[in-house]
Structure formats: C-alpha cells, structure tokens
What does this fold into?
Amino acid sequence: MPRQPLWVEEPAVRRRMPDPVRTAAVRAVIIMSLTIIQAMVALLSTMTGSWLEFPMMLSSVGSTVVATWAVLDVWVTRQVWNQRNGVVSVPSSSARQLRRERRGARRAARAAEREATRIRRRGASGLTRA
It folds into this structure.
C-alpha cells in the first residue's frame, strides 16, 4: 500500500505582500495585541478597585490612538507602494490577442519595407547578382 504524504503543498492564492507593507502590518498587529492586553488589565483592575485603575485607563486610551495610527500606517504604506512600484496586472486574453495581432502586422510591414528597398536598389543599379 503506497504511503500518502501528511500534507500536499498548494500554490498560494494571493501574492506575498511587499516587505515594507508586511513590516507595517506586523508592527500594527503587535501594537494592537498589546493594546488589547492593556485594556483587559485596565478592566480587571477597575473591577477589583486596584490603584492601577486610573493609570491603566489613561494608557489604554493612548494605546488605542497609537494602534489606530499603526493600522492607518499599513494602509498608507500599501498605497505608497502601489503608487511607486505600480500594480502588478496580468493582461486578459483578449488584450494579449490584440497585442499579438499588432506585433504580427508590424513584422509584416517591416518585411514588406525591406523587400521594397531591396527591389529599389536592384532596379537602380540595373544589374542583378547571380
């Protein structure tokens, strides 16, 4: 009985994010997770009546602002990347077909032009080479 592999690798459905965008996204996720942890500590200290209640609440508000800024940074970095490097696009089959037809027409026109210049040269000298 043949052994089946534990998993089969499949090609990625989406392209990998550019490095600056991925760096900003990782930074945003870390900041957001720390903000959520901080908010939970603030909530628990509020419920227990601890002295940490007020400082944690203030820092949670500040962390929320920073986390919002980090998420916006991901969006802005992505937009800047797309503007500077262009969006990778794959031409559709109809566009590819049109381009192929135009290329063929240009090649035929160049070949006809070469043939016409060759005939003109031959006719101007009056001699043909054997």
In short: The chain is about 75% helix and 0% strand.
